[in-house]
Amino acid sequence: MTRRPTPASAPKRAGIATNRRTRRTRSAWRAGDTDRLHARSTLLLLGGCLGILALALFTAASSPVALLVIWAALGWYRHGRIGPPLVEFPPEEISAQLRERLRLIGLEHAAVLGTLVLTGVITMLRGIEMTHPAGLLGLSADPGEPPWRVLLLSVLFTGANLVLTALTVGGDCTVRRPAGSMALLSILMTALWGIALAAVLLLPVLLIDEPVAGTVPILLAAAAFTITLALLPAWIRSWSREAHTERELELELQRALKHP
Fold first, then answer.
1. How far apart are CA 188 and CA 192, in angstroms?
2. pLDDT by residue (tens digit) across 32-79?
3. Are residues 168 and 160 in contact, defined by beta-carbon separation less than 8 angstroms?
């Protein structure tokens, strides 16, 4: 005869079922569901890079690269922490997750800058004059400006813009579960940093006579890119420490809920 569960044993069996369900969810997440989601997002950007390169072979358009810059800036939101709470993982696994997401974001940024360079080279080989470097906003250049100078300024400008966006929103997206508002904030910060960089880089053109005026913005852009890139590792280490702190707070909250 099958024994029916008593009312006292029902909560216990429900608890066991819940724990099994939690373990299955955690195992599936660790098995790579989230990793596949991140990889799919990166493959989508790489596909966009190839599409824009193909477009550059047949048209004179370079502005679509600006869409890649926006998509790359959204990388911090797209690769933000998803899945179980941080308390589910030991500190070393949290650090490993963060490093993996940073590698994917770095790959996306490198792909965008590489596409920008190749698009410029294709444009020059086709004999099309480059007067607007591809970027989020686009820096205007004089019609007689050498193409290599326009391209170099564009790459440095875009690189500095992406790194400054990373310093602004990277921590909030990778440490805490980013809400939809972080996507809008990422786009806003990229636009604001682009405006600020453009103002700084174009100021020498207004104040200094040629040929120095064409060189100074490149030097300023190179300085901005180098300085911000040098600051990024320290920021990343602080994000890792912050993630571990978030985990400890979640643990304390769980203990307080279990033993009020």
1. 6
2. 456 677 788 888 888 888 888 888 787 765 556 778 888 888 888 888
3. no
